[in-house]
Amino acid sequence: MQTKEITFKHVGQGIPRRDGDEKVRGLARYVDDLNIPDCWYGVAVRSPVAHGRLKTLRYDPAFDFDQVCVVTPEDIPGKNIVDMMGQDMPFLAHDLIRYRGEPLALVAAPTRQLAEQAAAHIQPDIDPLEPLYTLEEVIALHKTDRSKLDELSAQTIIKGSVDEGLAAADKVIEGEYWAGHQEQLYIEPQGMVAIPEKDGGVFLQGSLQCPYYIAPELIVTLGLPLEKIRVKQAAVGGAFGGKEEFPTLVAGYCALLAMKSGKPVKMVYDRCQDIRYSTKRHPAWMKYRVGLKNDGTITAIHVDFVLDGGAYTTLSPVVLYRGILHTTLGYNCEHVFVDGRVYRTHTFPDGAFRGFGAPQAIWGLESHMQECADALGMDAEVFRLKNYLRAGDKTGTGQVISAEMDPPAVMLETLKRSDFVNRRTLNTYGVPRDGKFFGVGVAFFGHGSGFTGDGEMRLQSKAALDLDWLPNGKPGVNIRISSTEMGQGTLTIMPQIAADGLKIPMACVDCPLPDTKYVPDSGPTVASRTAMVVGSTVYGAAEKMKALLEQYASDAFFGGHPCHLEDGVLTCSAVSQSQTFEDVARRLLEEKGMQRVVHQFKLPDTVVWDQKTFKGDSYPSYSWSANIVEVEIDALTLEIKLKKATSVWDIGRLMNPVLAKGQIEGGLTQALGYALMEKMGIRDGLFDADRMQTYVVPTSLDTPEFDIHFMEYPYPHAAPGAKGVGEIPMDGLAPAIANAIKAATGIRMNRIPITPESLWEAMPSTRKEIAS
Amino acid sequence: MNPETERTWIINGEKMSVTFPPGRRLLDVLREDLKLTGTKEGCGEGECGACTVIVDGELIVSCLLAAGQVPDGAEIMTVEGLEKTEGGRLLQASYVEKGAAQCGFCIPGMIMSSYHLLSRGEPLSQPIIREAHAGNICRCTGYEKIMEAVSAAAEHWPKSEAKS
Ligand code: FES
Ligand code: FES
């Protein structure tokens, strides 16, 4: 499929979001807004220790448990496991406890208060074991005695011979980089409601990203066939990966309680519960060893990449894969060795968060590339442009950068727009000017679009279009996909795409929130894949629906002569007649009822991936960007202010520039938090910043002047040609800021978040004396 | 049993009476007792601003205010009441057009801050607009489009709804 020949009418327009009106009027129904009669409330009985063995649960005889419903492992109809990778997580811990707050039992009651009271009257007896909490402890053991660590996943990438490459170098530059936990902090906390169905099944509605994760994963636990587990998305108040795999847990808790009690059961976490007992971005440690020639050539890249996985495997292997694939992405090098590992700790399992391992990797990569440039005395952009991948070059897995991409283009444009070369003459290099340090920094990066490796081939995403009566009583087309709307704009871009494939007005196309009763599995709403993969699948289905309508109109209206649908009108030139889409659709619906077409996504046969050796085409395509930032630091308080962020993005063809820009602005703001503000420690096995007062994210006063610009290099194998946009804005800001801080102060900060306190710690003692 | 408190308020221009136990948060009375679920809870501790409403012309976070502290006859405006005012409709249209809402969960509170700011009728600048929304956390947008929406609405703000 070549995108060039296609003309678009709706794709590419900044059409206002379809769900905007209900959202600004307060009418959108999030899970806690649903009015469900006779709904009980669910809570978990949680472990007070992080590591130990559960002996018994003691029920306080003074409490009347008859008024509530209690679920313990014995009540689980299927297997007591969460059917995710590793299958090492029980729904309810019954023997070994691996994190503080791990659920041991569940309680539902007519009110939240009563449920909480009942839970407080169930006391566990636990033999405590020694816990391992932090990445710092993990890395100390990783360096000295790995036998003491529990490895959840490991993967290498090998290209050429890294020893040979290092031996050929004039210089070898080493550096270690650390990144902490990050909380998604969607403003709507986790929530779900389970309603028992008459046929013994269960109907789940909630705040979730992936209906077809929850339904099949719960088969094992609930002992129900897939068709008896119905999952419907309520309006979602932000997700960012935090509602990717995690909602299966809340769904399971609610479903177990609903099935036992026979009542609808709801759980909505309060903010403190949400932060303590839901997934975070994996903390990461990286060690780079890069071989360099004096002329700036990179001869070898050796990376150790370690993630703290938390208590259970969940998605960590896949986060590791995406992480290691981005540790060298963008740089041309013959000899690469990446050693990736995930270790278990006794904290809440880490999970999906926008970027999925890539922000950690690019934080290390782009910090270290700057160190390499500095060590050679080369300018940041000169070193990068010398080594950056161009069409025809090969990545660390041997993937050839195809001709439709031009990675350095975004870099060149960002340099121009930011006036980098002139602005950097103002860098203070450790000597404040008028009480301030000033620096400009750059980061240059790519992000894989879609599932890693052959994931998209294995997923076989489907999209259906139903010709049907729309809620407005008119005939039209319903888009049936499992992709969720969580603020990014699915409900708007999909109708844009379908309308263009069908050649009908957008008003004739609807995209309801997914409900597994009606939608096929289009895959999860993750991995920067929705616009590219599902968008293209919807486009394919739209072309089929167009053909179906043309065939029907030809037979029913034009005496068998062929006709052509364009701009909502079917025209038959042979008989010089035309019919509107609406009239044709009406007749077809009245005559034959609802019409469904289904299309399945396919990658070009040229995509080849070996999951064992990690060789081949690691992603169907890549988005590219460069970020150039200006940072000002108060020389007395060391307050760090991001003043300006210039960025240029190749995310393929733009589906909707207003929504795309919204993704970039929002993602950059989260990246700003990751770089400078969002700090999360562990205290007694719990996240210490467990409220919005202590976990501080950017406000309207913290964001910089943004200059955001797009360069469109459409993906040619999947019309309409989008690549990924969701995750890439999270990737590059932290290293760009750290590089600017180095230009300002002369200090390489190798741990995010970078705070005034950590900057003070890193100051040489001479400087501290001057400042104090 | 604790005695119930009884209050009659003008909510979004309509007279409504409600009884609730002492100590109940205004947020719960609005969402649960009066089924005005437009107003959201994001943190329950006054930090996120999703629960922001206007009580007698004052911007307040309804998660921190005991409903009993709101006197009889008080005028309360929530997101559901915006469309009854010209300025509110203007703001809503501007938010939609500029792409200021993404997931929309912060919006019921955010837009009340916008309405409160614009209806004061004071001279505006970018820093003033930013400051006026600093109590509303949005995790989706990066605030740019919200600022644009407020600036655009300010240009056409109806004189009748400017108080000063
Ligand atoms: S819920 Fe009231 S400020 Fe967050
Ligand atoms: S739009 Fe999602 S939090 Fe503001």
Task: Please characterize this protein's 3D structure.
- The complex is a heterodimer of chains A (772) and B (164).
- Chain A has 772 residues and is α+β, with helices and mostly antiparallel strands.
- Chain A has 20 helices and 31 strands.
- Chain A folds into 3 domains: 153 residues, Aldehyde oxidase/xanthine dehydrogenase, molybdopterin binding domain (Aldehyde Oxidoreductase, domain 4), CATH 3.30.365.10; 189 residues, Aldehyde Oxidoreductase, domain 4, CATH 3.30.365; 252 residues, Aldehyde oxidase/xanthine dehydrogenase, molybdopterin binding domain (Aldehyde Oxidoreductase, domain 4), CATH 3.30.365.10.
- In chain A, strands 3-5-1-12-9-10-11 form a 7-stranded mixed β-sheet, sandwiched between helices.
- Chain B is globular, with a radius of gyration of 16 Å.
- The termini of chain B are far apart.
- At the A-B interface, α1 and α17 of A face α2, α3 and α5 of B.
- Bound molecules: FE2/S2 (inorganic) cluster (2 copies).
- One FE2/S2 (inorganic) cluster (FES) binds next to loops of chain B.
- One FE2/S2 (inorganic) cluster (FES) sits at the interface of chains B and A.
Runs of chain A in which pLDDT lies below 50 for 5 or more consecutive residues are none
How can the largest sheet of chain B be summarized? 5 strands, mixed
User: What general outline of chain B do the C-alpha atoms trace?
Assistant: globular
Output the structural class of chain A. alpha+beta
Q: Identify the overall geometry of chain A.
A: globular
Question: What is shown here, in short?
Answer:
The complex is a heterodimer of chains A (772) and B (164). With 772 residues, chain A is α+β, with helices and mostly antiparallel strands.
Features:
heterodimer, A: 772 residues, alpha+beta, Aldehyde Oxidoreductase, domain 4, 3 domains, 7-stranded mixed beta sheet, 6-stranded mixed beta sheet, 20 helices, globular, B: 164 residues, Ubiquitin-like (UB roll), DNA polymerase, domain 1, 2 domains, 5-stranded mixed beta sheet, 5 helices, binds FE2/S2 (inorganic) cluster
